Amino acid sequence: MTETESKWDEKLKRFFKDYYWNEILQLANEYPDQRSLSVDFTDIEKFDRELSKEFLELPGELIEAAEAALKKIDLPVEKILEQAHVRIIKVPNRISIRELRSKHLSRFVAIEGMIRKATEVRPRITKAAFQCLRCGHLTVVEQNSFKFEEPFAGCENDTCGKKGPFKVMIGDSTFIDAQKLQIQESPENLKGGSQPQSLEIDSDDDLTGNVTPGDRVIINGILKSVQRTLKDGKSTFYDLVLQANSIEHLDKDYDELEITAEDEEEILELSSDPAIYDKIVGSVAPSIYGYEDIKEALSLQLFSGVVKNLPDGSRIRGDIHVMLVGDPGIAKSQLLRYVVKLSPRGVFTSGRSASASGLTAAAVKDDLNDGRWTIEGGALVMADMGVAAVDEMDKMKTEDKSALHEAMEQQTISIAKAGIIATLKSRCALLGAANPKYGRFDRFESLSEQINMPPALLSRFDLIFVLLDTPNHALDSKIANHILQSHYAGELFEQRQKLPGSHITEDFVEAEMEMIEPIIDPEIMRKYVAYARKNVFPVMEGNARNRLMKFYTDLRKTGEGKDTPVPVTARQLEALVRLSEASARVRLSNKITLEDAERTIKIVMNCLKNVGMDPDTGALDADIIASGTSKSQRDKIKVLRDIIKRVSEKHPGKEGAPVEEVYAEAESKHGIDRTHAEEYIKRMKQGGDLLSPDQKHIRLVN
Fold first, then answer.
1. 111 located within any domain
2. Tens of pLDDT, residues 207-221
């Protein structure tokens, strides 16, 4: 051991005893299952500034010395921490991938980003034992992580000394678990027009298998370089590789969010507040005025219903899917972005730019792992256990929309690509936004006619909200006041931040900001949601169950007559149950009361009135969502078919029935006005039921 190493040795031993004695005892108890001691870099700085500086500049030697010092500490238990690692976390030297330069080589750096790829965990040889096939002597050769080294000097046995042949003895060699990762810059940190850059990571031993693609992490490690090889020799260019020392997870699932005792106290205090619903609604997108019913639905979506795994192996989803449809310029995208921000694993994507493989999963050739085909998860897989927000859903291609069916109901994504057959989990709530086909929503047309989306997909949404932009002087004044106030507060804040000589005081900015401040801080809100999802599993009381049952059966009863439409289907009942569970979770209550049932009935009725009402008769009709055609429309189409058939029989020629005659009979005898008749005939042509040999005639397809 060199003099400097022995100097470090004493310092490091003292540091471990002063700062990490309890953690070392815990490690000794759990060793060898637990092999890592996490050391906070700020503690090293507090202990000795010089030592912390050395850690950043000579990390390889220092970490080796720290692990050696850890082995030498006298423990009260009979254990030697032979294979223990020192993992340094909270390193201040955080650098973005695109700013890595040659000066950072061999330094200790922290890289923040999103895991893009992770190979399988495989053993890597660290000490290879070679047996000489002439004399049987074993020669051990240390291996570096890049190239396999064979005994260069020949057999170590003095009497033999031959240069081979050798055989690797697997049983006598030492192996370590290894995994290659690829980290990419987080999308939100990118500057306009730049492509995200990525970096290769080597992780080994107990760091392996801890991350999955989509995780946001900080990886602390030593920046190494590997020379590129060309066909005709070696290149002067080197590739960067980060030798990982520790991995810190940034965004955690609801289960992994750390909730301290103080947080729990605050959460329980909030839950006992009678105005908890108003407070939570006020904490969802406070910069947007109004939309209380939508904000309530979005907060229930965050809390989610209870997932049920039944004895027969089937699974009933608990996630609530919500769809917002409406006129442009009414803050749909802003609502989506806010919910994604509140959710621990939120993914935001836009329909026009998302392909089927981008939403579900893609098969790609893996450049980290011998060029094999691997599956890369898309947006819905990345949002597993969170919220996936898809804006502009109406602008997606038809084949991309079909990828959502399975992801929404079964919450899995089945893949059969490039010889890989797999099922990925996508247990996420989907929040969609869409604009009507012709820009503005027409309340006299059915929803499916106005949105470019298949009815089967629409029927999978638990709640569909229609947002209309209708002028109303009193409301418009309030909205205008709110928007101008938000901008004014933002202007004050920016001027105070950016102009050094600004005379605006912090108290003044805070007073103006109060109106658009969320009532519950977003961080506590996330923890509140996490706590509810983790610890609250409500059960429905009898009177709540009876209320939902009565509501459902009463609605269904209106559809019992021969000529009446089906008002609701069992899907709406399931939505009611999920929303009631989420409503009880908001109060952290394990009982679903009558009040919860009433609240969800009110929300669902609002949606049904907007979406599932036949514009002609005013009756609720589930077919409008499920099939895109209401009962009254189907009846009129049937009448028109009969008219076309009768008129065609009067004109036995090849052309078929004259269009004008059909319109005249429809209006005079059956009261179907010309505009509607034209619409229905157009729809029948699109469906392939009618042919039009020329512009003046139509005939039925047999």
1. yes
2. 888 887 767 788 888
